[in-house]
Specification:
Distance between the termini: 22 Å
Radius of gyration: 20 Å
Number of domains: 2
CATH topology of the largest domain: Serine Threonine Protein Phosphatase 5, Tetratricopeptide repeat
Shape: globular
Strand content: under 5%
Structural class: mainly alpha
CATH superfamily of the largest domain: Tetratricopeptide repeat domain
CATH architecture of the largest domain: Alpha Horseshoe
Helix content: over 70%
Number of strands: 0
Length: 266
């Protein structure tokens, strides 16, 4: 199951969000058309420029050069250990480079400096994917101590955790709570459909996913799981069409491509 996709997605959102932590605001003009070499020289000249540092990290990230992006982020937090935003950026980069423990450590530093609910959400999501009960402790904290706008995430993570540990019946009520207050929460539709799939309720999974892709018609994972459910119902043509839609919206979706190739070879 492509569970890691949800976690990476959530962390990237935080990575590119506006800075709200304590960071050095010595900023030089943004180099909108700068080359990588220009940015490297600019950061060497103005190492305290938050804007330039962030732009260089993003440029490395876009090029898949995680080692260099991580090195810049680590250098920044060594210089300013209270920079919670950069600790969060480092967590994103560490997670994407498969250093899960490093991501957890960075998020814990971010929370220690500036306890934004978003940081707790990211940390709890990682723990849930690891089947670690700390996910439940953090979500309980969110439900008891943060505004209701964070509760959707908390309910989702609880459902996600129980799906990850193979207890779909426990997952469903939390996912229902999430969707009850936010009917556009796509990941909750996916997790509820996965729970139904694991319970062998394939028709119900199709119903849930059909609603999801109606609300968001480019939701590639919704189409992927539709394909999985249709296969179980022996609806080959519908499964093929669903996998094709998944690849239409994400042509680098390996699970969907593999499933489509297997079906079309039969």
């Amino acid at each position: 199951m492509p569970y890691l996709r949800i976690i990476a997605s959530g962390l990237i959102v935080l990575f590119f969000s506006a800075c709200t932590g304590n960071q050095n605001n010595t900023v030089k003009p943004r180099l909108n058309t700068a080359t990588l070499s220009d940015l490297e020289k600019a950061v060497a000249t103005y190492p305290d420029s938050a804007t330039l540092v962030q732009e260089l990290i993003q440029t490395y990230h876009k090029r898949g050069n995680y080692d260099s992006a991580i090195a810049i982020a680590e250098r920044t937090v060594r210089r300013d250990t209270g920079n919670s935003y950069m600790w969060n950026v480092l967590a994103s980069l560490k997670f994407e480079s498969t250093d899960t423990l490093g991501a957890i450590d960075a998020l814990e530093h971010a929370i220690g400096n500036y306890p934004l609910p978003e940081y707790y959400v990211a940390l709890a999501t990682i723990y849930a994917g690891m089947k670690n009960k700390n996910a439940l402790h953090i979500t309980d904290y969110l439900l008891e101590n943060t505004p209701t706008k964070n509760w959707d995430d908390a309910y989702f993570i609880k459902g996600y955790y129980y799906n990850c540990i193979g207890q779909p019946l426990k997952a469903i009520p939390y996912l229902d709570s999430c969707l009850g207050s936010n009917y556009t929460y796509m990941y909750a539709y996916r997790e509820k459909a996965i729970a139904m799939y694991d319970l062998k309720k394939y028709e119900e999974a199709v119903r849930i996913l059909t609603k999801a892709v109606t609300i968001q018609n480019n939701y590639e994972e919704g189409y992927y799981w539709l394909g999985r459910a249709y296969e179980k119902l022996n609806k080959k043509d519908s499964a093929i069409e669903s996998y094709q839609f998944a690849l239409l919206y994400d042509n680098e979706f390996p699970e969907a491509r593999e499933a489509l190739e297997k079906l079309t070879k039969k």
